[in-house]
Amino acid sequence: MTNPIDIHFRTEVREEDRENIRSILVSTGFFYDIEIPVAVELAEEHLQSGPGCGYFFIFAEVGGKTIAYACYGPIPGTVGSYDLYWIATHDSCRGQGIGSRLIEAVHEAIVAAGGRLVIAETSTLDKYRPTRHFYERTGYLAEARIDDFYRKGDGKVFYVKRF
Fold it and tell me: 52-85: per-residue pLDDT in tens?
């Protein structure tokens, strides 16, 4: 049996994370060009306003290099419900269990904050089959679907994990 990768998780958002996020998302080939600036904006919001902005981050680092990240936050107007806004691993590091360990860290943080469920959303396109499988493998259930959400032929699936 091989040793797991030595991953360091951090929750502090740093100036360089704007570029780290951009680089990770671009490398995956999964996100539209219009989506990537939105992800970067969430980190900028956190840098400007701190945790009070409602966006929380966990970054996965190996050897001092940021290779994956997740962004999540409580859903306003609910008690204990959270959104998983983003989770991505740099393409060069995929398939090594990093995403599974990262989402586990997210779940632990949500539970520690009093969370009772988390919602993740993704596309229905065949390209996103591995993403849907990832959510299912990590304990999420597909609870809703909207056809043609992102564009014609590209629907949205809502996955929910309860704690």
Answer: 999 999 999 999 999 999 999 999 999 999 999 9
Query: 63 CB contacts (<8 Å, ≥6 apart)?
Result: none
Q: Encoding tokens for residue 159?
A: 């996955």
Q: Quote the Cα angle for 42-43-46, to 5°.
A: 90
Look up the pTM and report it.
0.94
Is there a contact between 27 and 90 (Cβ–Cβ < 8 Å)? yes
- Between the alpha carbon of residue 117 and those of residues 74, 75, 142, 148, the distances in Å are 10, 10, 13, 26
CA 52 to chain centre: 19
Query: How far, in Å, CA of 50 to CA of 43, rounded?
Result: 10
DSSP 37: H
Question: Which residues partner with 72 through β-bridges?
Answer: 56, 84
Strand bridging mode 141-151 / 117-123? unpaired
CATH superfamily assigned to domain 8-162: Gcn5-related N-acetyltransferase (GNAT) (3.40.630.30)
The burial class, CB within 10 Å (0-12 / 13-18 / 19+), for 87 is: buried
* Average confidence score pLDDT of the chain: 96
